[in-house]
Specification:
The chain is of the alpha+beta class and 165 residues long. The chain is built from four helices and seven strands; from the N terminus they run E-H-H-E-E-E-H-E-H-E-E. The chain has a domain of 110 residues: Gcn5-related N-acetyltransferase (GNAT) (Aminopeptidase, 3-Layer(aba) Sandwich). Strand 3 and strand 4 form a beta hairpin.
Length: 165
């Protein structure tokens, strides 16, 4: 991304599904998220169609191309004060500030529109760049989940991270 490239953050649309499926299949992305190589386009479309008022998803666009997705889901019942987030960025656009922009959009909704007190996420323990991004935004490690996710034929640990206000 050049300095003149503009990043646009906007709510997800159903027609973003093909680009999002392509990104989730990229090496450098799929091994650090919970997508599977067998995921299908219709699954992605159905997921977006089934978002509720408790789901807040944003995409990042560069030159009209979708390059990342981030989502926030508000808790239910007695966890209504909290939310869980996820985020991923296309390999070619990583380490360019796009993940930070997506995270800023989610935290703006969480803080200023929903008044959430707690926002949490999980991140692969070996994903140091993502962990550092979350720490820069005030998240701290609250737990270490041993052997919690399978990726590329191995069990991986995750950190549970949260930011409380």
């Amino acid at each position: 991304m050049s300095e003149t490239s503009t990043v646009t953050i906007r709510p997800v649309h159903e027609d973003d599904s093909p680009a999002l499926l392509r990104i989730t299949r990229e090496h450098g992305v799929i091994e650090t998220i919970l997508a599977l190589p067998s995921d299908r386009l219709q699954q992605r479309i159905d997921t977006i169609r089934q978002l509720t008022s408790d789901d807040h998803w944003f995409v990042a666009e560069v030159a009209g191309e979708v390059v990342g997705l981030a989502g926030l889901r508000v808790g239910q019942g007695r966890t209504r004060h909290s939310g869980h987030i996820f985020l991923f960025v296309a390999r070619a656009h990583q380490s360019k500030g796009i993940g930070g922009r997506l995270l800023d959009a989610l935290l703006d909704v969480a803080d200023n529109w929903l008044m959430l007190r707690r926002v949490e996420l999980t991140v692969f323990a070996e994903n140091a760049r993502a962990k550092a991004l979350y720490e820069r935004h005030g998240f701290v490690v609250e737990g270490h989940l041993k052997m919690s996710v399978i990726s590329e034929g191995a069990l991986h640990d995750e950190y549970l991270m949260a930011r409380c206000r």
